[in-house]
Write a structure and sequence with these properties.
Length: 401
C-alpha cells in the first residue's frame, strides 16, 4: 500500500482515547502492520565499504513522524536522511562530508548521526541561508534514535521527529544515505550507499571520495494524522467510531470481527470520504457471540492494496485489570489494561529461570488501552510478564511461538 494512510488503533472499553500502536523505538522492525510497506527499496548491492541500504519506511502518528531503515552498516558509519518539503534548501553538507546535494529541490532537513556506534544525532534545518542545529545532540536520552546491528552488521535504525519540526509541510521527497565519520575535502567520506540508489564513493581520498547526490523517493505523503477511536457497548449493540485528520486516495474501511483474535470475518464496510482535513466515521452492529469480541479495520487503497489496523477489544465486564490478547504470541505481546484512572505500569518480561529479557514503562491513560511488549528477540518458549502499577499488579503467563 502506498504511504497514504496507516491506521494505528488502541483497544478500548466504553471510552474514547488517543490512537496507539506506533513504532516501538528499540532498533527492531515492528512489522508492516505498524510501518506499512517501504516507501523505497534499493538494489540490494552493497556500496562502498560494504554499506548496504535496503529498505526505507516512513509512518506517523498524531505527534511524530517516524523513519526506519533496514541496512548493513558498521558501527563507525553514519546515517543521513535528506528531506525536501518546499522550494529552496541547502547544497553543502553541514558536517563537512564530501557530499553535494545536487537534487533539483535541495533538502530542507538533514536528520543525521551515528548509525549504530552511539546515541549521537543532530537535526539540521535550512533557514534560507545556512544550516541550523549544528552541535545539538537531540538524542542525549536515546529517546529519538535507535539502531541495533548484529555481528554481521545487519540491522535496523529508526528515529522519530516531532511533527511540529516540519511545521505545516508534508514530507515530500526523502533520501536515506549511509556515509562515514570523517570530513574534509582530501579524505572526507561521501555517500557509501543510498535509497534510492545514487553515486557512491570509490576511494578513501580525493577525488574518488567526493559524491554528488540527486535522487529522491518522491511524493512521500505522510500517512493520516490520526485523531481518536472509540468503542462501546450499548445494550446489545456495538458502536465503533474513528476519525482521521488527513486522507489521500482511500477506498474505504472493512470492519472485521473475531472471537479469538485469529479468525476474522467481514461484518461491514464504510466508504472513505477522502477529505484533505480528514473525516469522522461510525459503525454500529448487533453484538452476538461471547462476552469478549475483537474488531479491526481493513484499510483499502483505491489501487487495491490494504493494511490492517490494530485490534480493538470490547468486553461486557472485564474481570481483571490486565488481560492478554492472543496467546501464543509472535513478535509482540498485546495486553489490554482496564483501570478507570491513569497509571504508570512497569512491564517486566522474564523467562522461566527468572532472567529478565525486557523492561518496559507504559503510561496508561485511564479507561482501557493496549500495552505492547516487543518479543522479536525472544526464543520460542514460556515466559512471565510481570505488571506493576499503582493499581495493576499481575503476572501473566505468555507462550512465544
Amino acid at each position: 500500500m502506498k504511504k497514504k494512510f496507516t491506521l494505528l488503533l488502541t483497544a478500548l472499553y466504553l471510552v474514547a482515547v488517543s490512537f496507539a500502536g506506533t513504532p516501538i523505538l528499540d532498533g527492531s522492525f515492528d512489522g508492516t502492520g505498524v510501518w506499512g510497506t517501504p516507501v523505497g527499496t534499493a538494489d540490494g548491492i552493497a556500496g562502498w565499504s560494504d554499506a548496504n541500504a535496503k529498505k526505507l519506511y516512513v509512518t506517523t502518528d498524531a505527534n511524530f513522524v517516524y523513519f526506519g531503515a533496514e541496512c548493513n552498516a558498521q558501527n563507525w558509519q553514519q546515517y543521513i536522511i535528506a528531506i525536501n518539503t518546499k522550494a529552496g534548501g541547502g547544497t553543502n553538507d553541514p558536517w563537512g562530508r564530501t557530499i553535494i546535494y545536487n537534487h533539483a529541490n535541495k533538502p530542507d532537513f538533514l536528520l543525521r548521526g551515528d548509525i549504530a556506534g552511539s546515541n549521537y544525532s543532530e537535526r539540521h534545518i535550512w533557514n534560507g541561508t545556512e544550516w541550523t542545529g549544528m552541535g545539538t545532540n537531540i538524542n542525549a536520552g536515546a529517546a529519538e534514535v535507535k539502531g541495533v546491528f548484529n555481528a554481521s552488521n545487519e540491522g535496523f535504525i529508526e528515529l522519530r521527529v516531532p511533527r511540529e519540526v516540519f511545521g505545516t509541510s508534508d514530507v515530500s521527497d526523502v533520501q536515506f544515505i549511509i556515509g562515514g565519520n570523517n570530513g574534509g575535502v582530501d579524505n572526507g567520506h561521501g555517500c557509501f550507499d543510498a535509497i534510492p540508489n545514487d553515486n557512491n564513493g570509490t576511494a578513501w581520498g580525493a577525488p574518488g571520495n567526493a559524491t554528488s547526490l540527486s535522487n529522491y523517493i518522491t511524493n512521500v505523503l505522510l500517512p493520516a494524522n490520526l485523531g481518536t477511536f472509540s468503542g462501546r457497548l450499548s445494550g446489545s449493540d456495538v458502536h465503533l467510531q474513528w476519525n482521521t485528520l488527513t486522507e489521500t486516495n482511500l477506498a474505504g474501511f472493512d470492519v472485521e470481527k473475531s472471537v479469538d483474535a485469529r479468525n476474522w470475518q467481514n461484518v461491514g464496510y464504510v466508504a472513505a470520504e477522502n477529505k484533505n482535513n480528514g473525516a469522522s466515521y461510525s459503525f454500529q452492529m448487533l453484538k452476538t457471540g461471547p462476552a469478549v469480541s475483537y474488531y479491526r479495520l481493513k484499510v483499502s487503497d483505491k489501487d487495491g492494496s490494504f493494511v490492517h489496523s490494530k485490534l480493538v477489544v470490547l468486553k461486557s465486564q472485564p474481570k481483571n485489570n490486565a488481560e492478554l490478547i492472543g496467546n501464543p504470541v509472535t513478535n509482540t505481546i498485546n495486553v489490554a489494561i482496564h483501570t478507570p484512572q491513569a497509571e504508570m505500569i512497569h512491564a517486566e518480561l522474564v523467562d522461566m529461570n527468572g532472567r529478565r529479557l525486557s523492561n518496559t514503562i507504559y503510561n496508561h491513560p485511564g479507561g482501557s488501552s493496549i500495552l505492547q511488549v516487543n518479543t522479536s528477540k525472544a526464543q520460542s518458549g514460556f515466559y512471565l510478564l510481570r505488571l506493576q502499577g499503582s493499581t495493576t499488579n499481575e503476572t501473566i503467563r505468555v507462550v512465544k511461538q
